[in-house]
Amino acid sequence: MTSSVTNPVKAFALIALGLAMAAMGIYVANADDAPGAAVIGFLLMLAAVLFGVRTARNRLPIWAARTALAVGVLIAAFAAFLTHAVTVAAPLFAQPPDLPSVNESAPSPQWAAAVDRARSMVRAAIGEQNLPGVSIAVGMGVGIVWAEGFGWRDVVTQTPVTPDTRFNIGTAAPVVTAAAVASLGMTNTGTDSAAEWSPSHHGEPEDDFPLFTLVHNIILRPIGVTAPAQPLPGDRATFYVPRSDDNNPRRGRRLMYMRDLACCAGGMAFYSTPSDLVRFALATKADSVNGQLAGGSVMSLMTRRDSGIVVAVASNVAHANTAALALKVADVFAEQK
Questions:
Q1: How does pLDDT run across 89-98, given as a tens digit for each residue?
Q2: Is the CATH code 3.40.710 the one for domain 96-336?
């Protein structure tokens, strides 16, 4: 009697533990940044297989095996959900030194102090809001005095933002006219099909079959069976939206839907760089404007006519507080001037 009771209990424990280890192994391999994560994930999945083999040798009654398997699947799914939730909500950059940045050129000595202060503000804003990437440019007179990219234009590949990274400017697109783009030679400003910014047509009916995407992204790719993930070509930034109902980027993010990337007519995505936006504003005396995607700010162009300073800030996640950051940076340069 004791043996018949012990076997199902033992089998349940082995199956539940094995499936949980498999799920966690897959997510570790897919989501962890640390070196050797794929190896750790593979070892966890291998251990799960060994547990499964051991369980099969117990020759359980059918009802016991089915019950243990069903409960084990639920536990594994719960473990996978928790692991994934922690991963997407964790801070992208735990410490300011972890945040990569790429500048166009060293600022002139006249503006070095202002750039140092502004750079610290950008890093602080990225950490506070948990933003994937930010690009900023400051101009006055007839040229740009500072341009720098911070963070990642693509979270999965950890491809850094540069001053040439192209961001979708959303509802601000009508401000940047085609005539101005042509006359000023703004090579990093224009329009693309929304499909260029979402090759998988994310969130649309023609999106890849969910089960295929799941298997491809969390099993085949982490163990090296398929090609590794690549950032979008053409210096395009991958765009995200907050996962939470309160639209707070600090609580994690997901890919933006294709329809959100084409906020204006014709299914086209309107893109630019902060450097191009600053050049445009300096040449045309444009007013301040904010651009939105998916109901949240992704870009701010601020013109300070009192000091002749123009600041452009762009991020690749909706509901980034780009306007507040642009204002702070403008104040720093106004004080320095």
A1: 567 887 777 7
A2: yes
